[in-house]
């Protein structure tokens, strides 16, 4: 998957879980969990949605690599090669 | 119902405080429990004195009281001596603002060291502390500040901007807003916490405090109407101390971690007060749940007693299933851990057994609520565990099961209730008032307070059954209040927020069972005439509710339903919505609108 596609996918997954999230204003390196006040249930949903959309199996232990738009997109790209 | 009982055959490394349940029940008295505390020189009783000052005075000055792990994993410590000085500064700070006895000080903070200073400093000053959960949205925050007569709010610039600034004008009683960290300069009408703290003297003499002086205000949710502010007094500390000894088995050498946020009663009673009164080292994690992070903290901080919640345990079960592999927990040294307890919602039997298999320790479920102020029913360190059961009443606690009436609550006939004597019969859990941390009222709402009692019993609103051996089993709520991720959520508060949306005509909110959170908040809404039910509107409504209510309270699912079931008086029947959602029989519909 191309990185731009992955980035869009991450943004969409966030929007689906946090409908009022201003993802356009989110910087590539912002820790979105904090910025968007995602609680642990939100984050769990985000992981599920992202996994479903990308077809990438995401283990709980992978979650430290899903903290920003940038590292989340990298993660998806790396696992869809 | 037969489930595998977990026995406690092997001798524990630490002798449990409560070694013989029946004997402890027979011998315990609250008057004796009162003697375990130090008291003020004039005989008064102040929570902050018991939790902080007396330890510093008794040679524990250099002992670590708080080990704080920041979001970024930086670890800092606060000794009992330092905590004494910081809380003295905060008490002096309040006094310099003219804030005194009985005045309400609110916190809206994450789990940062300043939160502990503000809580205990407020109690030192004999002001009343009301904690707010930082994941509340502007609506719940404003409502609680107003209902609780907030004079002071301690928060951060980001939280203030997001949740309070717009509403400040409608809160004339809120005189002082103290901002922790930078950002005061840009926020009109705020003061710098850090600046005022450094200017305040670090010694403070606690003024006379009566055991019956109001100390804490905890908001909780009811089925209808506004949230209720449960009032707790300084004497509650007697119960915090005694129950933490019996139900959490706290010993002086323990390192203790309670994962509950102090914005809720568990995080206050057992995250701050009880462990400090026991003179322990308390682990404070500012970060959010993350499986690796939690295992790491348990290991690196050498946590010995861990008090957590079913939702968190179920998340850990997903990360590290019972079937294995156990690589993640095994990559940390969890050998210090000796006792695990859980509260907030019923703990499923699988989670109890998971603890035994994956962590080497079964999880001890217990039960209590905001109003009780302390643990009432528990599985104990020395006793067998019946997985799925909340356990048995603590020493000093008298519980019973009351026969239900038609509305599901305890049946009251001519002022009298009927106790259920037969085992395994469902009824409402009731408690005999008289323990020290029993709430003393709902603030400004004596009517609802009075309605919580019948025939000398406090009615909990929880349905349970008691087995032949006296173990209690949670069945459900007797009312419409939703337990989600360990938090109590009032459907009325959520419905009210949704009805503020221009498209919504009516709303009914229920808890939909969820494998991780226990229940999640689901809303059914009917739309005003001419409004079309579209996915965009659905998103818009979810966003709208979340903006107002915050993630802790907002619905996670919204469904459109133009035919919400209603009573003849026009009230949405949540019970029926729930039955429909679950595919259950809908029962007696005779009061339903349109039925004959």
TrEMBL record, chain A:
Upper lineage is:
Bacteria, Bacillati, Actinomycetota, Actinomycetes, Kitasatosporales
What is the recorded name of this protein? Acyl carrier protein
Q: InterPro entries under this entry?
A: ACP-like_sf (IPR036736), PP-bd_ACP (IPR009081)
- A Pfam family that this protein carries is PP-binding
Q: Which SUPFAM superfamilies match?
A: ACP-like
* Sequence ranges assigned to domain Carrier in this UniProt record: 1-80
Judging by the UniProt lineage, the source's domain of life is Bacteria
From TrEMBL, chain B:
The record, for InterPro entries, names:
AMP-bd_C, AMP-bd_C_sf, AMP-binding_CS, AMP-dep_synth/lig_dom, ANL_N_sf
The enzyme's E.C. designation: 6.2.1.1
One GO cellular-component annotation of the UniProt record comes to:
cytosol
Query: In what residue span(s) does the AMP-dependent synthetase/ligase domain sit?
Result: 55-443
Q: Per the UniProt record, which residue ranges are transmembrane?
A: none
> GO molecular function terms here?
acetate-CoA ligase activity; ATP binding
Record keyword ATP-binding present:
yes
Q: Does the keyword Nucleotide-binding apply?
A: yes
* Keywords from the UniProt entry: Acetylation, ATP-binding, Ligase, Nucleotide-binding
Q: Where is the AMP-binding enzyme C-terminal domain?
A: 493-571
Entry's Gene Ontology BP terms: acetyl-CoA biosynthetic process
State what protein this is by name.
acetate--CoA ligase
Origin organism is Streptomyces luteolifulvus
Taxonomic path:
Bacteria, Bacillati, Actinomycetota, Actinomycetes, Kitasatosporales
């Amino acid at each position: 998957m191309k990185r731009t596609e992955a980035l869009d996918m991450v943004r969409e997954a966030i929007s689906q879980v946090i409908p009022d999230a201003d993802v356009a204003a989110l910087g590539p390196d912002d820790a979105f969990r904090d910025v968007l006040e995602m609680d642990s249930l939100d984050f769990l949903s985000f992981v599920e949605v992202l996994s479903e959309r990308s077809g990438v199996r995401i283990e709980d232990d992978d979650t430290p690599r899903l903290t920003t738009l940038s590292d989340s997109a990298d993660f998806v790209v790396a696992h869809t090669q | 119902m037969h489930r595998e009982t977990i026995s406690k055959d092997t001798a524990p490394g630490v002798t449990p405080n409560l070694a013989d349940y029946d004997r402890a029940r027979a011998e315990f008295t609250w008057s004796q429990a009162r003697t375990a505390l130090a008291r003020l020189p004039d005989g008064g009783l102040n929570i902050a004195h018991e939790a902080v000052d007396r330890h510093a005075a008794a040679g524990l000055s250099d002992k670590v009281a708080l080990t704080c792990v920041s979001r970024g994993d930086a670890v800092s410590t606060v000794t009992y001596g330092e905590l004494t000085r910081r809380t003295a500064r905060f008490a002096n700070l309040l006094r310099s603002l003219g804030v005194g006895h009985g005045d309400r000080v609110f916190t809206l903070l994450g789990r940062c060291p300043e939160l502990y200073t503000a809580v205990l400093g407020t109690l030192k000053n004999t002001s009343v502390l009301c904690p707010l959960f930082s994941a509340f949205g502007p609506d719940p925050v404003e409502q609680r500040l107003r209902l609780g007569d907030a004079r002071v709010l301690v928060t951060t610039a980001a939280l203030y901007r997001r949740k309070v600034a717009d509403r400040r004008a409608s809160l004339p009683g809120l005189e002082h807003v103290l901002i922790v960290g930078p950002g005061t300069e840009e926020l009109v009408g705020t003061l710098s916490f850090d600046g005022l703290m450094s200017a305040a003297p670090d010694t403070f003499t606690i003024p006379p405090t009566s055991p019956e002086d109001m100390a804490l205000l905890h908001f909780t949710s009811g089925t209808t109407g506004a949230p209720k502010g449960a009032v707790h007094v300084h004497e509650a500390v007697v119960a915090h101390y005694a129950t933490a000894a019996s139900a959490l088995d706290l010993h002086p050498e323990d390192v203790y971690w309670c994962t509950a946020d102090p914005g809720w009663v568990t995080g206050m009673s057992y995250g701050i007060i009880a462990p400090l009164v026991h003179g322990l080292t308390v682990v404070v994690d500012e970060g959010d749940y993350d499986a690796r992070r939690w295992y790491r903290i348990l290991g690196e901080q050498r946590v010995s007693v861990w008090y957590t919640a079913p939702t968190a345990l179920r998340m850990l079960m997903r990360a590290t299933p019972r079937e294995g592999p156990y690589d993640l927990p095994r990559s940390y040294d969890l050998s210090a851990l000796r006792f695990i307890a859980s509260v907030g919602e019923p703990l499923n039997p699988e989670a109890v057994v998971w603890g035994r298999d994956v962590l080497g320790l079964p999880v001890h479920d217990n039960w209590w609520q905001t109003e009780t102020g302390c643990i009432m029913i528990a599985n104990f360190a020395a006793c067998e565990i019946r997985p799925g059961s909340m356990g048995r009443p603590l020493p000093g606690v008298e519980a019973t099961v009351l026969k239900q009436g038609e509305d599901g609550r305890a049946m009251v006939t001519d002022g009298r209730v009927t106790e259920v004597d037969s085992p395994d019969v469902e009824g409402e859990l009731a408690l005999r008032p008289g323990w020290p941390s029993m709430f003393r009222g709902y603030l400004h709402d004596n009517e609802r307070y009075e309605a919580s009692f019948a025939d000398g019993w406090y009615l909990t609103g929880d349905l349970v059954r008691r087995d032949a051996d006296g173990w209690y089993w949670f069945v459900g709520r007797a009312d419409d209040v939703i337990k989600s991720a360990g938090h109590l959520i009032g459907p009325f508060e959520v419905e009210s927020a949704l009805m503020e949306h221009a498209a919504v005509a009516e709303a009914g909110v229920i808890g939909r069972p969820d494998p991780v959170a226990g229940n999640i908040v689901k809303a059914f809404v009917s739309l005003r005439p001419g409004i079309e039910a579209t996915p965009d509107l659905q998103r818009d409504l979810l966003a709208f509710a979340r903006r107002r209510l915050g993630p802790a309270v907002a619905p996670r699912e919204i469904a459109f339903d133009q035919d919400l079931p209603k009573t003849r008086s026009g009230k949405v029947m949540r019970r029926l919505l729930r039955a429909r959602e679950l595919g259950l029989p809908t029962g007696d519909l005779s009061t339903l609108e349109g039925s004959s």
